[in-house]
């Protein structure tokens, strides 16, 4: 039966037109996501409303909603509250957070950019990190979501930084930046967006106003990080250079070293993890990472009233 004829479908027809399986349709009915069909004798008859609802569910699933959230949204729709504002807010949040445009690079261009020596392990790690994305059907070409990020890696490699060190630095940096992003979201949710998100789902008017605020506030996160990173780099780079240019740097460094007493169990655990010869370096690296994390905590905005 075609969609253009009388809008009455058997469950098999509905499954074919909607792209859902018969089993999925029945599961949606059981969960209250899809109205029950009309019963005619021994047959169940579905209509255009069922097809529309299945397409709505598929669209919301593609946008990342869970079935529980979709049920709330559809119940709001059924009571006369539209989804346009909510979907507009979702589109605004899921839209690009940068003006940078993705590019493509061939495998040959990639090898040339990194010194002319193929390194499949480095390529695999770049794919894992999302710096490169495979293109289906094109084994010799990759999508580059952030050409700037790849350009940084190229410059670091040309300066002599090993590729494993570059990828390790990116992993560590990404974790720290994600921490800052989470803190910024907590901050703006408490002080800005909380009043719009109190009702689930929000009204069309509230969602539209929240979407407008997302557009206004979107650049602030990057601007804040850029400004604070510039300040920190100026401070630490100046201090670092001064320390290395001072005549008695070696003496100063030696005088700054102090023995630290650690629990025996801690030393043993680290030795079992990385070996006796790497114990001191591991403890120093772990300590430096913790200090950096606390510096980032101090730079990130904290919600008022938190400790």
TrEMBL record:
Residues 8-76 form the HTH merR-type domain. PROSITE patterns: HTH_MERR_2 (PS50937). Keywords: DNA-binding. One of its GO terms (molecular function) is DNA-binding transcription factor activity. InterPro entries: DNA-bd_dom_put_sf (IPR009061), MerR-type_HTH_dom (IPR000551), MerR_fam (IPR047057). Signal peptide: none annotated. Pfam families: MerR_1. The keyword DNA-binding applies. This is MerR family transcriptional regulator. It comes from Streptomyces qinzhouensis.
């Amino acid at each position: 039966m075609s969609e253009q004829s009388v809008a009455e479908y058997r469950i098999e027809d509905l499954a074919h037109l909607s792209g859902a399986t018969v089993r999925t349709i029945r599961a949606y009915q059981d969960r209250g996501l899809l109205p029950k069909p009309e019963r005619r004798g021994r047959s169940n008859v579905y209509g255009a409303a069922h097809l529309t609802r299945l397409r709505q569910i598929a669209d919301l699933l593609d946008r990342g909603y869970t079935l529980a959230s979709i049920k709330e949204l559809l119940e709001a729709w059924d009571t006369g509250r539209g989804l346009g504002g909510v979907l507009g807010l979702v589109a605004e949040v899921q839209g690009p957070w940068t003006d940078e445009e993705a590019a493509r690079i061939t495998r040959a261009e990639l090898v040339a950019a990194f010194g002319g020596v193929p390194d499949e392990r480095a390529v695999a790690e770049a794919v894992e990190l999302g710096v490169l994305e495979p293109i289906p059907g094109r084994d010799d070409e990759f999508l580059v979501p952030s050409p700037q990020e790849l350009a940084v890696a190229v410059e670091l490699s040309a300066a002599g930084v090993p590729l494993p060190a570059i990828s390790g630095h990116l992993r560590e940096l990404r974790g720290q930046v994600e921490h800052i992003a989470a803190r910024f979201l907590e901050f703006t949710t408490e002080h800005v967006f909380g009043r719009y998100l109190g009702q689930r789902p929000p009204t069309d008017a509230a969602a539209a106003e929240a979407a407008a605020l997302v557009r206004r506030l979107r650049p602030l996160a990057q601007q804040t990080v850029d400004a604070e990173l510039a300040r920190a780099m100026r401070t630490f780079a100046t201090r670092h250079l001064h320390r290395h240019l001072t005549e008695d740097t070696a003496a100063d460094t030696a005088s700054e070293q102090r023995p630290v007493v650690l629990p025996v169990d801690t030393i043993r655990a680290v030795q079992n993890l990385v070996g006796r010869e790497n114990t001191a370096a591991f403890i120093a690296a772990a300590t430096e990472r913790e200090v950096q994390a606390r510096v980032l905590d101090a730079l990130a905005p904290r919600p008022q009233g938190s400790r």
